[in-house]
Amino acid sequence: MNEETAKAGIAVVHVFIETFNAQDHEGHAKTLNYPHVRFANGRISTIENAEVFIAGSRRGEARLQQEGWHHTTVANLDVIHSGDDKVHLALRNDRCHEDGSVYHSFDTFWIATLVDDHWGIQFRSSFLHASK
Predict the structure, then answer these.
(1) How do residues 13-60 score in pLDDT, each as one tens digit?
(2) Per the domain annotation, does 117 fall within a domain?
(3) What is the pLDDT at residue 131?
(4) Staple 98 to which of 10, 18, 70, 132, CB 3.0 to 4.6 Å?
(5) Cβ proximity of 87 and 79 under 8 Å
(6) What CATH number is associated with residue 20?
(7) Which domain holds residue 109?
(8) How many CB atoms lie within 10 A of CB 75?
(9) Global pTM value
(10) Cβ–Cβ contacts within 10 Å for residue 99, how many?
């Protein structure tokens, strides 16, 4: 296990969550490496660049508001593997209402990569259908 890259992978996860919670779409896009691949709800999607990600992130904001989302927390984070330029991370994320109550929890597996001196999340596979 490469401790230095493990820390880099963990750090980018936290910035991802911070920018997501702030709904800072441009900042959030910077936490990724592209192409970004997501596997959720039985579908694989590939996001080619930050502009495409930002547009999708903006569209998703209304859906989050409709479900009563206020913020997301990382309930658990484990580094599974880490090498010189890649970190595998297992997370459990909680979606919370404004009062902090958790209304949806799900497990997810992310891969953080080092591309052109930039650490970013490049792959996410989530069990979004899982409940609390």
Answers:
(1) 999 999 999 999 999 999 999 999 999 888 999 999 999 999 999 999
(2) yes
(3) 47
(4) 70
(5) yes
(6) 3.10.450.50
(7) 3-126
(8) 13
(9) 0.94
(10) 6
Residue 132 lies in a domain: no
In the three-class reduction of DSSP (H, G, I as helix; E, B as strand; rest coil), residue 4 is classed as helix
Torsion angle of alpha carbons 127, 42, 24, 59, nearest 10°?
-130
Q: CA-CA distance, 124 to 90, in Å (whole number)? A: 10
Backbone angles phi, psi at 64, to 5 degrees: -60, -45
CB 89 within 8 A of CB 78: yes
d(CA 121, CA 37): 9
- Of 21, 17, 45, which is closest to residue 31 (Cα–Cα)? 17
How many structural domains comprise the chain? 1
Helix, strand, coil tally for the chain in percent (to 5) = 30, 45, 25
DSSP 97: -
Position 121 in a domain: yes
**Whole-angstrom distance, CA of residue 32 vs CA of residue 59:** 18
AA identity, residue 69: W
Domain assignment present for 120: yes
